[in-house]
Amino acid sequence: MYKLMAHINKEFDGQWIFMINCQKDDNGKIIGGEVVLNSESRDKVIREMAQYMHEDSETYIRYIGDIPEGISVIL
Predict the structure, then answer these.
(1) Amino acid 17: pLDDT
(2) Closest by alpha carbon to 33, among 57, 6, 12, 4?
(3) Which H or E element spans position 69?
(4) Cβ pair 68, 22 in contact under 8 A
(5) How far apart are CA 18 and CA 20, in angstroms?
(6) What pLDDT score was predicted for residue 54?
(7) So what's the pLDDT on residue 70?
(8) N or C: which end of the chain has fewer CB within 10 A?
(9) Adjacency order of strands within the sheet including 15-24
């Protein structure tokens, strides 16, 4: 089910998400998509996202919320 990022940010706070069918605005910012995986465990989401590799759509993985202490992020 397609959701806007504002809704996703509230619903999945503190979790890793993987989205398919993402849409971007004119500046390239993700504005919404379909959340197909979510978990507090990044490793679980990464393991399970392999089943969506056949998807012919824009995909996106990210952590929703404040980055937990002790976690490093590469941009």
Answers:
(1) 98
(2) 4
(3) none
(4) no
(5) 7
(6) 78
(7) 82
(8) C
(9) 2-4, 30-39, 15-24, 60-64
Identify whether the C-beta of residue 9 lies closer than 8 Å to the C-beta of residue 64: yes
Q: Which H or E run contains 5?
A: helix 5-11
What would the DSSP string read from start to end of 7-53?
HHHHHTTTEEEEEEEEEE-TTS-EEEEEEEEEES-HHHHHHHGGGGT
Q: Is the pLDDT of residue 68 over 80?
A: no
Using the 8-state DSSP alphabet, how is residue 4 labeled?
E
Q: How many CB atoms lie within 10 A of CB 73?
A: 7
Q: Are 22 and 57 in contact (CB under 8 A)?
A: yes
CA atoms of 19 and 15, how far apart (whole Å)? 13
Domain boundary assignment for the chain: 2-64
